[in-house]
Every structure is written in C-alpha cells, then in structure tokens.
Amino acid sequence: MTAQHILLGITGGVAAYKSAELVRLLVKAGHTVDVAMSESATRFVTPVTFQALSGRPVYVDLWDARPDNNMAHIELTRRADCFLIAPATADVLARLAHGHCDDLITTLAAARTCPLAVAPAMNKQMWDNPPNQRNIAQLRADGVTVFGPGHGEQACGEVGDGRMLEPEQLFDLLAGLTQAKTLAGRRVLLTAGPTFEPIDPVRGITNLSSGKMGYALARACRDAGAEVTLISGPTALPRPAEVRFIAAGSALSMHAAVMEAVPHHDVFIAVAAVADYRVANASAEKLKKTPGQAPTLTLTENPDILASVAALPSAPFCVGFAAESHNLLAHAQAKRERKRVPLLVANLAQHAMGADDNEIVLLDDHGQHPLPRMDKTGAARAIVAHLAGMLPIR
Length: 394
Ligand code: C5P
Fold this sequence. Notes:
This protein is an alpha/beta fold. It is built from 15 helices and 22 strands.
C-alpha cells in the first residue's frame, strides 16, 4: 500500500487498546496517522499513548484551537485519504447513521471528503440489537464500509459476534478502502499454495509454493468489492481478513472443495501449485525404516482442477497461472489453449517462487500484455483490473 494519510477515530470501547497497535503497524508501514478520540475513549487509553505512537498531536475537542483555521473537523479530513473509526461503539454508529454532529468524530464524518470505514466493537446483544442492525444497514446504504465485527470471546466474558477485528486484520482491510470496486457483486473462488500428497501419516511430497501470489490476489479481489472464497493448501501465511477460507491438503481434497464451491461463483482463479501426481500406494500406517530397503513410491495422476472447472457446462470465468523455468510465453500460450481459459498469467518460476515481487505477462485473446516488475500486491491489483475489464457486463 502506498503511503497514505489516515485519520483514525477512536470511541469509547475496551478495544481502544488494540487501536494503539494499529497505529504502530500503520506508522511502521510508512503511513501518516492523525488520531481523533471521543471523550469516553480517553477513559480507556490516554491521548498521550496515541501521540507517542503516531508522533502527531491527538484531537479530542471540536473546539481545539490548534488547527490554523480553528476548525479541526475540516482541517483533519481534508488531508486524509481515508477515515477509520475503530473501535466504533453502538452509540457512535447510531449517531453516524442519523447524521448527528455532536462531537469531533461525528462532525469529522459528516464533513469528510474521503471514504469512511467503521470497525464495530460491542457486546453480542448490543450488536444483535435491532436498532443497531438498522443503523449498520443504514450506514452500509450510505456507502460506509463496515469492517467485521469478529466472532469470539468478549471482554464481558460472553462469546459471540461483536469483537473488533484484530489490528493486523484492520491494517489488511484499510489498504483496500481506496480501491475502485471493479468486482462489486462478483463472487470469486481462488486456489492458492501447494498441495501435500501423503506417503504415510507423517511423510508426503509437495510443491514449492509460498501462497503469496494467491493470497495477494484474494485480497485484491476482496478490495475490488468481490465476495471471495479462498481454498488453500498448507502455507505459513495469515488468512486474509473478510475472505471465506477453506483449508485443503491434497490435490484430491482441493479438487473436491473447488467442485463443491464453484457453482456459487462467477470467477475461478487457479493460483495453487497443485501436485501433478499423488502416491498411489500411500500407507495408512507410518512406514518403518528398514536399512538397505528403500520403499518404492508408485505415482498416479491428479485431476487438473483448472481444466475440470473450465470444462463445466456453466463454467465461471477462468484464470490460470503458468510458472515456467524456460520458453515461458510459448508454454504459457499452449497451456491457455489446452486448459481453455480466457486469461492466463505467466511468470518465470525462478523469479516468482517465494519472492515478494513478481514480473508477469497476461495472455488473452488479444495477445500478450507484459507488466513491469512490481510487488505481489501491485501485480494482483493489475491482474484484477485486467480481469474486471474482461468480465461480461451484467
Ligand atoms: O499444468 P500446470 O500445472 O503448469 O498449470 C498451471 C495452472 O493450472 C495453474 O493455474 C494451476 O493452479 C492449475 N492446475 C490445477 N490443477 C492441477 C494442475 C494445475 O488447477 N492439477
């Protein structure tokens, strides 16, 4: 995410302490953060904490005389690229939904020119309370983005919906707030990561794949407004926020999960490095090592997930990947035709594997579209922009 100016509103919930970590993550990533707090937020965490973490003055009072024009509510939003209220209490959501301007944060929201997101934080009954649900629906209808809330244990000891998302998840979602919603209303299914083909309960064979490109694409599709399902083989990556996640192990289990999910999706993006073969004679028990006697593995072919989806009678729009070590474009073009996919993303395996950046070429009916080398987030956004332009208009 390119460096941005972020306005962070903090209202009075226990989760305010998590916003301190969010400020730290944002500042560490090179963003500028202006913090505005409600009076009740200052009862949970003091402005000094946020001042120290952001390195900037913190605003609480609508009548703060520090801004040059004496109008903190105008001054702070004019320099912001986006405005996030986290935690957002049930009370601030109600006041926002009704256009109240009775404190600095609600006045900032009314006077803003940038996108607004809220991260609700409250007890599960307060979240489910019909007036709160009406307020959330109203805010969504007004174009406000709602991050979460999460499900889990709450400060009051109860378990349910209403937890504020974790700072890392809010950090992840904030990057998408300013993205064009080119995939709004689309449902995208992706595969990512390697597959793991068991030899016995403790051993297996796998492909080298970090999952970074597939996860970046899942995020880019989500940020472009799509509903996203990610079916992933084993990776060490954190799950993208607000993406439906299904864990898969072997190619067969990934194939089954994809076939079950695919009827509910308009787009299928196959990024996973699926093992071409599995062990036909896998053992249900751990193989004992017998000195001088190496076991012989018999391999059998795995289903081609992408080809089977592309061959479905009502196939979604399919995107494939080709990682080749040589003759990249010739192999990639052949693969596009063989698997019958309208869009194929080609990259050199030795450049892409595990790296944070990537140099790709897009292949479609109109030919080859090389993209400059960029990080995987940038590459994912470029793929999404190209893909969005190819989808049938509805
Ligand atoms: O044939 P190859 O593995 O090079 O093709 C790569 C493309 O096909 C990728 O999009 C990959 O996710 C997909 N694929 C698949 N199922 C397989 C093998 C590859 O979906 N068994």
